[in-house]
Design goal:
The protein is mainly α. The chain has helices at residues 6-36, 41-50, 55-65, 70-80, 83-91, 99-105, 111-118, 123-150, 155-161, 167-176, 183-199, 207-212, 216-220, 224-228.
Length: 230
């Protein structure tokens, strides 16, 4: 296999770094709320190492902090992580390999890794982007969890007060915007956004995000003549 060109690598590294930095305030916030919920420092850090699911970690810790049972915390996390099924389908062609490799790579099946991976065109670069994004966020997420649990005491309020919570959506938008050049993808994006906006006021937390994935059907339901450009 010939050596990888430098230019694509640099672009992927920039994308991965931007999302990893954007995730740091949330990692700090997770460390803070974990301690507030009664978790020890090592428990908060182990949670980020072995679970590593971002929003699902917050949901599980919130349940535990309110006195909920472990079963309820696990159910909350599973509900939010159902979106990972779609991530797996999207990344499957690029992550072909032995069972043990796919099992290892699945630990990185998060929004950021999938965003960087699917932003690439070639399967080879999709795999590279997925791994680069996942590893970058894994490192910064765990370091910031440690910092939040060990050092910070009011980072949770600072995240919303300073508007830092907007950094991840902004970074995602920068990655996904070029993909909207295709009419199919624009239809899927608009349909997903409409579904999400309708469900947010009435559906339980996280459900609107999962159901919004049905917006992809709007991209598929396109006449073959339109797809071929004739």
């Amino acid at each position: 296999m010939p050596p990888c060109p430098t230019a694509p690598r640099r672009a992927i590294h920039r994308q991965a770094a931007s999302l990893a930095l954007a995730a740091m305030p949330f990692g700090i916030g997770f460390g803070v709320v974990s301690v507030e919920a009664g978790l020890a420092l090592w428990e908060a850090c182990a949670f980020s190492v072995f679970v590593f699911t971002g929003s699902a970690q917050f949901a599980a810790v919130d349940v535990l902090g309110e006195g909920g049972a472990a079963v309820a915390a696990i159910a909350a996390g599973i509900g939010l992580n159902l979106r990972s099924l779609a991530f797996g389908v999207a990344m499957a062609p690029a992550l072909a390999g032995s069972v043990w490799k796919r099992a290892l790579w699945s630990q990185l099946m998060i929004d950021e890794a999938t965003a960087v991976g699917t932003a690439q065109r070639d399967l080879r670069w999709q795999r590279y982007g997925y791994l680069a994004g996942g590893i970058a966020v894994f490192i910064t997420w765990n370091l910031s969890t440690l910092a939040g649990a060990a050092v910070f005491s009011s980072a949770g309020d600072a995240i919303t007060t300073w508007g830092i919570d907007a950094t991840i959506p902004a970074a995602f938008l920068a990655l996904l915007w070029p993909r909207l050049a295709s009419p199919d993808q624009r239809r899927a994006a608009l349909a997903g956004a409409a579904i999400g906006l309708v469900l947010v006021p009435v559906a339980p937390a996280g459900v609107s995000i999962i159901v919004a994935g049905l917006g992809v059907l709007a991209g598929w339901c396109t006449p073959a003549r339109t797809r071929s450009g004739s």
